[in-house]
Amino acid sequence: MVFAGSCLAAESGQGDCIASSIQPEAIDLDKPRDQLARQNDLMIPEDARIASIRVLRRPIFDTTDPEQDNALYRTLNALNTPTWESALRAQLVFEEGDVYEPELISESERVLRQREYLTAAWVGVTRVCGNEVEVSVLTRDTWTLFPSVGVSRSGGENTTNFGLSDPNFAGSGKSLGIGYAKDPDRTETSLYFDDPNVLGSHWQAGFSFDERSDGRGRGAYLERPFFSETTNWRFGLSGIDDVREESRYVGAEAIADYRRSQEFFSIDGGWRLAERDSRQLRLLAGYRYNALMFDRLPNQPDLDIFPDDRTLSYPWIGFDYRQNRFREMTNLTRLQRVEDVRDGFVWRTELGYSGSGLGATEDRVVLNMDFQDALHASETNYASYSLSQSGTYRLDEDRVENLLGTVSVQYFHGGSERWNSWYTNLAFTAAHNLTADQQLLIGGENGLRGYPSEYQQGNRRLLWTLERRYFPDWHPFKLFRVGGVIFTDVGRAWFTDDRNSGPDEGVLKDVGFGMRLASSRIEVQRMLHLDFAFPLDGDDSIDDFQVLLRGRSQF
Prior knowledge:
Distance between the termini: 46 Å
Number of strands: 28
Protein name: BamA/TamA family outer membrane protein
Helix content: under 10%
Mean pLDDT: 88
Number of helices: 5
Low-confidence stretches: 1-14
Keywords: Membrane
Largest sheet: 20 strands, antiparallel
Organism: Marinobacter adhaerens
Shape: globular
Structural class: mainly beta
Radius of gyration: 26 Å
């Protein structure tokens, strides 16, 4: 209240408040470059505190715009329950009374932009009164209560689904959904609930319930994550009970099905240990139990190699070493949206010991590692690479098992300033001693859009993709964003011994073109992919072209 009074006095010429020339009311959330251009223009004292947080919520459609002032858009605004102000405040990583830190302002903006129920978000200082500041939070809702009815096609196989979901149930920011899906492997009815801010806190909880034609799925979790880069600790608890039928592929065909049952439990914690400049070290520790059981199915051919039951039960310890540096870009992987990319590295490693004394089937050493780093980030270029490794070492047989390693490099050029860009990605994966329930595949959903799913398999996989992407500044009915792509894929999967890897064991190539369609008002986190891919290799069993219709979160 003192802050508001001092600002009121300033407007009467009796105080020392300074208002920013950048006010949220003037920001066009349909233009990502306008959001990025409107940065803080005020001199803020080092000891300033956040005295007030002002939340401005825009409806789905701006009916003051003649193009959006129609009966349909007014009706959708009236039917939509605006996101609660308390739900938006719960996403912020700062509170009234905190010392002003510009990094927390930027991080809160990043958190809000990740929420499915918001199309855009802007956070900034809009007034300074002595050593007190006013922070404004601007958001715009999206229509979230949406029946999903869809058909997708990839790798020559169809998937149908329908359901009803709302990632912003009654404006609360909580997610609730029911659905039905049918694909070549199973039919499935599902129910899920997710609360990203339990009772307005930074705790998260959720559950899922699935009934399948070939089994069931149950899952639940409770977590307090590292919700901010400055968070000192985390805690997680989760469990899964899952039963389903899986297929074993040879030569692009499913030769036999078997039942896989999984029981999984995990509890873990993390602590921020040290921070210097923008680099931060976190200590991680926990316990996991993962039991996998396999059963033969009647009327199915016997497999020469059948997966053995295995249980891993292990405490583990690890670290997370990261560089907290970010860059805001546009037209990278989304259509006309502000995107937050890490301009630094993240290195996470876990080491555990799974012993028979803890209920494991064998004594094993468990080692997992992930490393990601940005090579270059500028207004028009972004390049990064990643390394990952997972697997176990069986002490009873003196060998590794399910060892999987991947290295990839990706590069974007041009999208932030122009309406077109280049994208390329090169990835290589090597596997060693995979169990019978694990396969390294390529085709359809696994890359190479011109070929059926699981067209090749092996213990090595190489895939290169090159795309010319188009991001026209076209906004039909203020409702959709449209993009285009021309692409080529080159790759193969193969075994390093004499085993058959598929109908065509050579390098595979395809070319194609596609369209991307994303709504700026409805279900904005999903993007429709329609691709037409033409294989340049392969045997006579594959079609002359593949049509892929899919929903994806990125371009």
